[in-house]
């Protein structure tokens, strides 16, 4: 088994973690969450979305969040941009990276961004071009790469096809996302190996939701396939409003604990992340979904 010596962890809780919250989360709390994560050492934090507030009301204050955060010089603050309007808002907010998000499933593409896969790529074209002209890093996210809530299993060829199209748009990084967390290690290995035949593995990331408790195994399988960038969310917060029943992303605390045990460098302070997980869970009035976070808190309380 060949594993990387170092991985990049992209913290997505301020965006993916909070976007599905029913009650509006105060802008000040969102800002403090990003600031705490910055202080913990993340080099990339998905901080906001510039999407239609009619579609995702929780993310309506993206401009204020980006204006309020304290930026660590070595950290990239990313935002989601579904169209040129979102990109312009992202540029005004001085986002370091914009994320265009498509899907490997036609049905999910319609539900999430109200257009077909082909239409989404056409819509992303001017965004990609504008990002290149402005010198802003561009990431492409592929939802439902391991299964779709509306269509079932996703053919690997569909994932590879969208990855190629995103590469052609000029994406610097491409996320293979298990939106509903149905993927298992064997399939993850197959999908990652297929994608990395067309995209440099150093530019591919794994974005796993933990709905079926498979995320850590899936991360391990992805690392064996050459992937060294992973997305996670403190306290396991999250879920997509257009993927019913899907739970949060894999918990950052659990990923960091596993990486520590494997001797893989992350550059992130696990204790600071665990404290942040407890803090945000208390504010959202819920229990943390992180096993490692909960165990570390219990040990501290003794
Ligand atoms: C793409 C659209 C806009 C199409 O939505 P639409 O209704 O087809 O488009 P529209 O152009 O008719 O716009 C509808 C309204 O939104 C406005 N609007 C339009 N664009 C913007 C914008 N950028 N910022 C602010 N407002 C905007 C626009 O002006 C209009 O307002 P109205 O005229 O009715 O008053 C919509 O479907 C949308 O915003 N979808 C976002 C869905 C979303 O954010 N989903 C969650 C993120 S993806 C995810 O979680 C998956 C991921 C990335 O984590 C990976 C994984 O796990 O799978």
Describe it for me?
It is a single chain. The protein is of the alpha/beta class and 302 residues long. It has one domain (8-301): Aldolase class I (TIM Barrel), CATH 3.20.20.70. Helices cover 44% and strands 15% of the residues. It has twelve helices and eight strands. It has helices at 13-17, 27-40, 62-68, 84-92, 106-113, 117-134, 156-169, 185-195, 215-224, 252-262, 270-283, 291-301; strands spanning 8-11, 44-49, 76-80, 97-103, 137-143, 173-178, 204-208, 229-232. Strands 1-2-3-4-5-6-7-8 form an eight-stranded parallel β-barrel, surrounded by seven helices. Helix 2 runs antiparallel to helix 11 (270-283) and helix 11 crosses helix 12. The protein is globular. It starts with 7 loop residues before the first strand and ends with a helix. 55% of the residues are buried. Bound molecules: 3-hydroxy-3-methylglutaryl-coenzyme A (HMG). 3-hydroxy-3-methylglutaryl-coenzyme A is lined by residues 16, 19, 49-56, 80, 82-83, 85-86, 101, 112-114, 141, 143, 177, 179, 207, 209, 240-242. The site of 3-hydroxy-3-methylglutaryl-coenzyme A has 28 residues, from helix 4, helix 5 and strand 5. Residues 7-274 form the Pyruvate carboxyltransferase domain. Its EC number is 4.1.3.4. It catalyses: (3S)-3-hydroxy-3-methylglutaryl-CoA = acetoacetate + acetyl-CoA. Keywords: Lyase, Metal-binding.
């Amino acid at each position: 088994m060949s594993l990387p010596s170092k991985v990049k962890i992209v913290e997505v809780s301020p965006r993916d973690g909070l976007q599905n919250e029913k009650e509006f989360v105060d802008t000040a709390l969102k800002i403090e969450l990003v600031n705490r994560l910055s202080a913990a050492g993340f080099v990339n934090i998905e901080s906001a979305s510039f999407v239609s507030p009619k579609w995702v009301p929780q993310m309506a204050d993206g401009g204020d969040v980006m204006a309020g955060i304290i930026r660590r010089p070595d950290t990239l603050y990313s935002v989601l941009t579904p169209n040129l309007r979102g990109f312009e808002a992202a540029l005004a907010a001085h986002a370091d990276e914009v994320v265009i998000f498509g899907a490997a499933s036609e049905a999910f593409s319609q539900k999430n961004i109200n257009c077909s896969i082909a239409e989404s790529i056409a819509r992303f074209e001017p965004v990609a071009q504008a990002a290149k002209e402005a010198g802003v890093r561009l990431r492409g996210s592929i939802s439902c790469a391991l299964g779709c809530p509306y269509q079932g299993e996703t053919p690997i060829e569909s994932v590879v096809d969208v990855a190629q199209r995103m590469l052609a748009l000029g994406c610097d990084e491409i996320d293979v996302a298990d939106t509903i967390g149905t993927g298992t290690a064997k399939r993850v290995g197959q999908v990652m190996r297929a994608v990395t035949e067309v995209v440099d593995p150093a530019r591919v990331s794994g974005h796993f939701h933990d709905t079926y408790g498979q995320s850590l195994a899936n991360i391990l399988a992805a690392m064996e396939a050459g992937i060294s960038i992973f997305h996670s969310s403190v306290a396991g917060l999250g879920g997509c409003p257009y993927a019913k029943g899907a739970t949060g992303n894999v918990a950052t605390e659990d990923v960091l604990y596993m990486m520590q045990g494997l001797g893989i460098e992350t550059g992130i302070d696990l204790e600071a992340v665990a404290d942040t997980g407890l803090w945000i869970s208390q504010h959202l009035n819920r229990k943390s979904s992180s096993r490692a976070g909960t165990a570390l808190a219990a040990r501290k309380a003794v």
